[in-house]
Amino acid sequence: MRATVLVRPKPGILDPQGEAVLGSLRQLGFAVEDARIGRVVDLELANGGREQARAELERMCEQLLANPLIESYEIELVGEA
Amino acid sequence: MRATVLVRPKPGILDPQGEAVLGSLRQLGFAVEDARIGRVVDLELANGGREQARAELERMCEQLLANPLIESYEIELVGEA
Predict the structure, then answer these.
(1) What are phi and psi of A66, to 5 degrees?
(2) pLDDT tens per residue, chain A (81 residues)?
(3) Domain map of chain B by residue range?
(4) Would an 8 Å CB–CB cutoff place A26 in contact with chain B?
(5) A64–B contact, CB cutoff 8 A
(6) In chain A, at which residue ranges do the beta strands (DSSP E only) sit?
C-alpha cells in the first residue's frame, strides 16, 4: 500500500527556508504574500489493510517523520483498499 | 489565492534523505518497502485568477521551486475560484 505524508511547520513556528523562498520569489518578480516549506514523504508499506496502515503511519510520524512539537502532519493513503 | 506545490525526486534519481528515512523506519521495526522525500511548498498568492495563478506557479517551479532535471512538481490550487 502506498501512502503520502505531508509534514509542515505549525503556524507561528519560524520557517527560515520558507522565508528564503519568499524573498527569492519576490526578487524574481512574483507577487507572493507568504511561503512555507515542509516535507512530502512517499512511502511504500509492506503490510496491507488501511486501518493498520494508518495506525502505523501515525506512529512513524510521531517517532521519526515529524517533530510533533513544531510540525503538523497529514496522512493520505493512496493504494488499494 | 492559496496553492500547494509538491516537489519530488524523479524516479531513478538518487534520494539519500529517503534512503536514510527508510533505514531508520526499518530499524524502528516498521515494514516499509520504499521511502522517498520531497518538499511541500505552501504559497499565498497576491493575484487572483486561477488561470494566471497556475501559469505563475509553473514559472516559479521552473525557475526556483524545483530542479526540473531531477525533480517533478505537482501544483494544487486551494483558494477561491
Answers:
(1) -130, 160
(2) 999 999 999 999 999 999 999 999 999 999 999 999 999 999 999 977 899 999 999 999 999 999 999 999 999 998 665
(3) 2-77
(4) no
(5) yes
(6) 2-9, 32-45, 71-77
